[in-house]
Amino acid sequence: MPKTYNTQPVLTSLQTAKNALILLPQNPTLDTVAAGLSLYLSLTKKPLPVTIGCPSQMTVGFNRLFGIDKIKPRIGNQNLVITFNYPEDSLEKVSYDKDPASQKFNLTIEPKAGMQPLDVSQVEYSYTGCQSDLIFVIGARTLEDLGQLYSDEKKLFEDKTKTLVNLSSLDKNSQFGTVNLYDPTAIGSSEIAYSVIQSLGLTLDADMATNLLAGIESSSNNFSSPLVTADTFDTVAQLLRLGAKKGQMAVPPMMPRPNFNQFTQPAQPFRPIPVPQTPSPDWLKPKVFTSANTGTQI
Question: What does CATH list as the number for 8-78+128-241?
Answer without folding.
Answer: 3.90.1640.10
